[in-house]
Automatic annotation (TrEMBL):
Belongs to the universal ribosomal protein uL22 family. This is Large ribosomal subunit protein uL22. One of its GO terms (biological process) is translation. It comes from Gemmatimonas groenlandica. Keywords: Ribonucleoprotein, Ribosomal protein, RNA-binding, rRNA-binding. The gene is rplV. One of its GO terms (cellular component) is cytosolic large ribosomal subunit. Pfam families: Ribosomal_L22. InterPro entries: Ribosomal_uL22, Ribosomal_uL22_bac/chlpt-type, Ribosomal_uL22_bac/org-type, Ribosomal_uL22_sf.
Amino acid sequence: MAKALKTGTEARAIQRTARQSPYKMRLVIDQIRGQRVNDALAILKFSKKGAAKQIEKTLASAVANAEQAARAANTSLDVDALVITKAIVNEGPKLKRWMPAAMGRATPIAKRTSHIEIIVAEAVR
């Protein structure tokens, strides 16, 4: 599912092998890059794209990781001040399938997967 790595005032969440093509995921993630977390969650909640649900889960995980890091460091964290500093979608492994074709042949089908990485940090005021 989502792995977490915390460094300083930022937190990160990664989701590996999400079963949707990177192209479709990037259409959604481009809309939230650089946004405040609350604004990004609102965009994702009302998006008609299927990729928005997976990205919303990963973003929620990144926010939870930031809260956990702040709690572990015994510092205060304003969740409303969190900003998405980095949001990328990379290509994951392809599931290779075959479909019957004419005259006994077979044509390959590549079912694509994605790796989602979101990093959130507190905005500097």
